[in-house]
Amino acid sequence: xxxxxxxxxxxxxxxxxxxxxxxxxxxxxxxxxxxxxxxxxxxxxxxxxxxxxxxxxxxxxxxxxxxxxxxxxxxxxxxxxxxxxxxxxxxxxxxxxxxxxxxxxxxxxxxxxxxxxxxxxxxxxxxxxxxxxxxxxxxxxxxxxxxxxxxxxxxxxxxxxxxxxxxxxxxxxxxxxxxxxxxxxxxxxxxxxxxxxxxxxxxxxxxxxxxxxxxxxxxxxxxxxxxxxxxxxxxxxxxxxxxxxxxxxxxxxxxxxxxxxxxxxxxxxxxxxxxxxxxxxxxxxxxxxxxxxxxxxxxxxxxxxxxxxxxxxxxxxxxxxxxxxxxxxxxxxxxxxxxxxxxxxxxxxxxxxxxxxxxxxxxxxxxxxxxxxxxxxxxxxxxxxxxxxxxxxx
Amino acid sequence: xxxxxxxxxxxxxxxxxxxxxxxxxxxxxxxxxxxxxxxxxxxxxxxxxxxxxxxxxxxxxxxxxxxxxxxxxxxxxxxxxxxxxxxxxxxxxxxxxxxxxxxxxxxxxxxxxxxxxxxxxxxxxxxxxxxxxxxxxxxxxxxxxxxxxxxxxxxxxxxxxxxxxxxxxxxxxxxxxxxxxxxxxxxxxxxxxxxxxxxxxxxxxxxxxxxxxxxxxxxxxxxxxxxxxxxxxxx
Lengths: 394, 235
Ligand SMILES: Nc1ncnc2c1ncn2[C@@H]1O[C@H](COP(=O)(O)OP(=O)(O)OP(=O)(O)O)[C@@H](O)[C@H]1O
Ligand SMILES: [Mg+2]
Fold this sequence. Notes:
- The complex is a heterodimer of chains A (394) and B (235).
- Chain A has 394 residues and is of the alpha+beta class.
- Chain A is 58% helix and 18% strand.
- Chain B has 235 residues and is α/β, with parallel strands linked by helices.
- Chain B has a single domain, classed as P-loop containing nucleotide triphosphate hydrolases (Rossmann fold).
- In chain B, strand 1 (10-21) and strand 2 form a beta hairpin.
- The two termini of chain B are 21 Å apart.
């Protein structure tokens, strides 16, 4: 018997039992659909986060007090501006160290109010982070030294407060104090779901006085090239530990952050795929079950085929192809629905679902493998049926 | 392995077949020796349970004997693998069953073409040969009918066409008229008779009907797994 004949026979058998075939496929369809959708959501989330992190700028080392591990509680900061000055001496280039002190505050212009993230920082920020200006000027050293009440607005804050009017030179009220707008940043999007266009930057000294603290939240150090990152990272941590014996400081690079977050999200994607895989497995058990029923129902047919000259392997092939057709047709339908579902999720929700070719190829391969794996036992049973007994069966 | 026109269609020596039924041995055949010549027409008769169907299954290579030697068209079957046996069934033997055994949702033409599928014959040749075989049993006008759309007599004629389409040497029919009325039974017998006379196919049929047995030139009486009487032996 030729392969084409076996294929035609199997297809015919599925067509004859159309409703049953469809219901059996449903299990596989749902499994594949779940795999494709969940993997694309997981991959999309990972891609988005990685893009956001690399969008911060390149070769940046973030320095925070305490040990930075996933899930660890933030440590009370003891870093001050004196430490910033100290690190600037250690690093050697003052433009390569900047500082951040964050607080949520209400900003008001006339009757328009908004709650934004106010960040106290200094003139080095724009040299280290990717933060292009749309209008005006960035914070200057004099702003910081003289505690000027000046602010640079994020793009969204600027439009919200001033509309089409140019904000540069105008007044805003931050936490009740009057500030003069000196610049507006270009739109840069979000990081970890926080819109970075809703930030307002003020001199760190001004922020400290406003908040009544002499601490800062963290430091950032810029390396001049990828090769410099690691030695610089060690140098910074060693310097801080020497200054505060017995305390811990963490310096993380973007690559490390990317690696950590990437592996967490990768694990998440894996777990999602595994859960979806289980439903695919359940679909496979359904196929096996239906194929066994089918072999039993068609015992006489099998006996007859053998009497007419079908070999064991002809009968085995017929039933195996039937099982594989069930799962691969189901797989293709599941892939089509899954891709459609992922596209719908992407266009109707905030979730960035990314369809990857490998997940589609994998879903197809797995559904074919499920057909072989779960089809083999029923097909072998069919192939081994004793023709005499099969012909006598009623 | 020689096969030629000289060798008898079937040659059985001291065939036995023992079934194990819940640990109890049932001897369905207890030593049957038999020669069926090329182109011969023989009827096997005997009471129910005497072993007629068991013998037919052995002669048709559907089952293996517990002991004894069987040669079909000169080929000794005990040494053959499962797939060689299947090939032997496909090329040398045609089966007709009491209950027709047609595929229910398949047309007459495709039912008849089925043995050729397992021989690797291409689709158009298959259909042409199946149509010719149906023509030969007087069903040239029923090619696209399904079994449910045909009478019992017509169904059995489709089954005969299917047995003949591969041009076998031997046609084995186990009570081919058992499910048919007298008129349809007579028609089926007429077809078998003609095939035997014109086509030179050896026919072995099992029947309970004395009249039908009388159509055959040779009667083999089976009782309790043994041949009790054989009215003629092959040349
Ligand atoms: N698979 C089996 N297992 C056990 N015993 C069997 C089996 N098949 C047949 N037999 C026994 O073998 C004996 C012969 O059976 P067989 O079917 O050959 O009889 P038969 O002559 O064809 O009868 P009938 O005229 O009723 O068709 C019977 O006693 C039967 O019960
Ligand atoms: Mg019988």
